[in-house]
Amino acid sequence: MNITKHFQLLFYSFITWLSFYLIGLPEYYQQWPIGAKLAILPIVTILYFPITKFSLKKYWDDGKHVINSCWLAFYLTFPLFVYDYLLLAKYKDLGISFVIPYWYLTFFYFSFWIQFPYIGWRLEKSKEYS
Prior knowledge:
Elements: H1 3-23, H2 34-59, H3 65-75, H4 78-91, H5 103-128
Helix pairs in contact: 1-4, 2-3, 2-5, 3-5
């Protein structure tokens, strides 16, 4: 993957994080009731199936969907964790323990590493049988 692609994905990750942050204002979803937080997890997970498929096709044309999905998972988890860490651990002075009260963010740091490669694998399988 070339350097331009890395910067595109880094920009994509920042826009993704900023979108989630703005939707969660004023307290980054802390003001939402627990039921709403629990409901948003499967909703975002389901929404990311077509978004991931679109992103894999938009950013890569080499057909290596599983490998590319891992790059996508990396850029939509690690930078988002860093942005959350800077905001919550450093700026709001919560330290790394922010992962507990902000458990709904923590969920996606891990779930995308399962979901995205699965979607990539399905895309590769669909190409094999086409």
